[in-house]
Design goal:
Layout (H helix, E strand, L loop, with lengths): L1 H17 L10 E3 L6 E5 L9 H11 L4
Antiparallel strand pairs: 1-2
């Protein structure tokens, strides 16, 4: 019984590795329009996309100061 659980955990880890960005069957990630670094969004997303750093900085710039 324990061996089956261990095998299932190994299989789950292998499946998770295949789902990483850039893995088999994955779409390429879009580049940030400000700095050119990869974003968390696929290339198929329409509109302006930012990397996590630029997205955070944009949020800081547009936040209410008052």
């Amino acid at each position: 019984m324990r061996e089956q659980k261990d095998e299932q955990k190994v299989e789950q880890k292998v499946e998770q590795k295949d789902e990483r960005p850039g893995g088999p069957g994955r779409v390429p990630m879009a580049d940030c329009v400000l700095c050119g670094k990869p974003t968390d969004y696929p290339e198929t997303v329409r509109g302006v996309v930012h990397c996590p750093v630029c997205e955070w900085q944009e949020g800081q710039r547009t936040a209410c100061s008052g």
